[in-house]
Amino acid sequence: MPHVISxxxxxxxxxxxxxxxxxxxxxxxxxxxxxxxxxxxxxLTEEGRPAEIRIHLKDGRLGAKFYCPxxxxxxx
Length: 76
Prior knowledge:
By secondary structure, the protein is of the alpha+beta class. It has one helix at residues 30-46; strands at residues 3-10, 13-17, 25-27, 51-56, 62-68. The chain has one domain. The protein is built from 1 helix and 5 strands, in the order βββαββ. A hairpin with a 5-residue loop joins strand 4 (51-56) and strand 5 (62-68). Helix content is 22%, strand content 38%. The longest helix has 17 residues, at 30-46. It starts with a strand and ends in an 8-residue tail after the last strand. A 5-stranded mixed sheet has the order 3-2-1-4-5, covered by helices on one side.
């Protein structure tokens, strides 16, 4: 089961949830939050743990979902 990392709006900020430390990370823009989510997912996959990034829109709906497999699962 992949580790789920969510990027969602909260007021004027953007929150990244699902970091391995269980804390919420706060960013001034959605782009900055997405970069942080991708970095977290990359670290997890390097450790052999698959990850899934879920990007939510400003209205809260799910806008995109990205699956990040471990190196063993990548296509040859």
